[in-house]
Specification:
- Helices cover 48% and strands 24% of the residues.
- It has 9 helices and 9 strands.
- The longest helix is centred in the C-terminal third of the chain and has 23 residues.
- α3 runs parallel beside α4 and α7 runs antiparallel to α8.
- It binds S-adenosylmethionine.
- The site of S-adenosylmethionine has 20 residues, from α1.
Length: 243
């Protein structure tokens, strides 16, 4: 059986999705709070930047993959307006439900669907914009997921991949200390779960760096890919155009 990574562990490919599901089942209830704590609120700026670059206009069709608690989907819905469609999807029911409930509390109802990014249940060329924020890292077959994202975009449509990446040199040591000490400690303190936040740190280190992800997106059929480093490369936004 083929093997893959779950953080620093090597596991059977079939085991990875279940392990990732376990992590997000455990963190769903405290996910938004932990995002603010661990990024010191910066994830809001990274997402706002992504929404700006996405340039969603009224009437557009948008797909948010691995949408979790729905930060991007909600922001895109405001831009797409009542004539547009924003589909909020995730493989994890608990994450999706937490997001859907939060949106309903804010008076927003979006089409919400449990689906695996590696097998998207949408026709070819259907969306103007596809996004995936902090989700690609968790997928077993990233090339397959990127090919699916390319398939469901219309020609000229854009994919936005917001993900942790490789920071510039002076930050690497302090960032390692922060990731492997503070993150699991804060996870234990706030959410009663150090292991999930250790997985978070490890999965970030195992994720392809900026240049590798750019090459993967080009390999998946994106004719033009731009990379925007945020917070000195701790996070990167990759923007691929289907052309
Ligand atoms: C760190 S959360 C990101 C949530 C949200 N996009 C955000 O930025 O706050 C990662 C999400 O990826 C989802 N995920 C993992 N593997 C997936 C897959 N194969 N297909 C779709 N979603 C997946 C998880 O269930 C989880 O909700």
């Amino acid at each position: 059986m083929a093997q893959t990574h779950f953080g620093y562990e090597t596991v059977d490919e079939q085991e990875k999705a279940a392990r990732v599901r376990g992590v997000f089942d455990r963190v769903a209830a405290k996910y938004d709070l932990m995002n603010d704590v661990l990024s010191m609120g910066l994830h809001r700026a990274w997402k706002a930047y992504t929404v700006g670059v996405a340039d969603v206009r009224p009437g557009m069709r948008v797909l948010d993959i691995a949408g979790g608690t729905g930060d991007l989907a909600r922001a895109f819905a405001r831009k797409a307006g009542p004539q547009g469609t924003v589909v909020h999807t995730d493989i994890n029911f608990e994450m999706l439900r937490t997001g859907r409930d939060r949106m309903l509390d804010d008076g927003l109802a979006l089409p919400t669907m449990v689906c695996d990014a590696e097998q998207l249940p949408f026709p070819e060329g259907h969306f103007d914009v596809v996004s995936v924020a902090f989700g690609l890292r968790n997928m077993t077959h990233k090339e397959r997921a990127l090919a699916e994202m390319q398939r469901v975009l219309r020609p000229g449509g854009r994919l936005l991949v917001l993900e942790f990446s490789k920071p510039a040199e002076p930050l690497r040591k302090p960032y390692d200390w922060y990731s492997f000490n503070f993150m699991p400690w804060a996870g234990k303190l706030v959410a009663g779960d150090a292991d999930s936040y250790r997985y978070l740190a490890e999965s970030i280190r195992m994720h392809p760096d900026q240049a590798t992800l750019k090459a993967m997106m080009q390999g998946a059929g994106f004719g033009h890919v731009d990379v925007h480093n945020l917070a000195a490369g701790i996070v990167a936004l990759h923007v691929g155009i289907k052309c």
